[in-house]
Design brief:
about 100 residues, about 15% helix, 4-stranded antiparallel β-sheet, alpha+beta
Length: about 100
């Protein structure tokens, strides 16, 4: 929510394939630079501090999520691509095993 554009919609999409549930959280906003995408799951990593949006936080949230998903032997990925309207569509997708 912190990095979404005002008035934008955050979507959650789910699907099932190969015995796994795929959960995607998608928003439109300022996006994540390609170089930052490589590090966003690193502990204490924060994107460029000079940007305008509020940058409070310790940089632990995505690292914790990544570790929890990994401990469950699942995956999480992130993409951030231009939407053609001056914003970016950022998608986080993680898997959950279906029992």
């Amino acid at each position: 929510i912190k990095f979404s554009n005002e008035g934008s919609v955050i979507r959650v999409h789910t699907s099932i394939a190969n015995g796994k549930a795929y959960v995607s959280v998608i928003n439109t906003g300022e996006g994540i630079a390609e170089n930052d995408l490589k590090h966003i799951f690193d502990r204490f990593y924060k994107t460029d501090q000079s940007r305008e949006r509020d940058r409070t936080g310790a940089g632990l949230g995505l690292s914790l999520v990544h570790n929890i998903i990994r401990l469950h032997k699942q995956t999480i990925t992130a993409t951030s691509k231009p939407d053609g309207n001056g914003s970016y569509v950022t998608t986080f997708t993680f898997t959950l095993e279906i029992e």
